Amino acid sequence: MTTEPGTAAAPTEPTDLATLYRESGIDEVFDKLNADLVGLVPVKSRIREIAALLLVDNARRSAGLGKGAGAPSLHMSFTGNPGTGKTTVALRMAEILHRLGYIRRNQLIAVTRDDLVGQYIGHTAPKTKEVLKRALGGVLFIDEAYYLYRPENERDYGQEVIEILLQVMENQRDDLVVILAGYKPRMETFFHSNPGIASRIAHHLDFPDYGVDELLQITQLIAERIDYRFDETALATLREYIGLRIAQPHFANARSMRNAIDRARLRQAGRLFANSATDAAPDRNSLMTIKEEDIRASRVFQGGRDHSDVKGS
What we know:
globular
């Protein structure tokens, strides 16, 4: 960081923590987080703990304490299955860090292996450094970070990215926060194979899968945001759909439910259009309402799978 959070010309009496919290405005960020994401209680609790750590660190610095300690290490690991909210939480984390003065810019640069690794000799370093240049002052979010390490290919350029990352995570830790994300088992293997990276990660957040009730609530929220709703029988059928879909391969939590809504909208549109020759023009309620038949038509109810196979973490 170009300036240390809480730095004062001379030690002063510590500021009341409640005042620091209120003045930082991070309560607004937690409100957004709760509005954005259903559940995730362990994750939200851990974010509050990190925010508390940084508030206390600011108070200590204003009192002239811990000058030799430097800023707390803030590099993080987010592990969990697809659709569990990792990117959304990273966005809110960037906002918290900015409001507390630990990054200069409220920005998140989200990348994958393809954004960092070059296709030929001499291409990877400038490509990676350009991404890091854009991310400086904010948060760099690397999704599916384990794809950077491919031990089966000795000539893979991903190792060059890791070496550059190691230097930046250590030497510019005051001006860049790196969040590595992906499936938990693969991330554990990645850290085991790259102890230098693992040693620089201060905070590990594990994102649990959603339960049926949470997914039902998430689906309703997604639909409401685009002015759709489920009638009573459709809602009961949706709960049944979720129970079946969870048990199938390639389930991606909220992402799969967003896909399910898209397909239900297609069926609703087809139903309204098919009836247009005989029915009056659909009213506002009809245009908003997804019915049981729009969900029941899914192949999930016949033991098949919806087209929601997704690549990613």
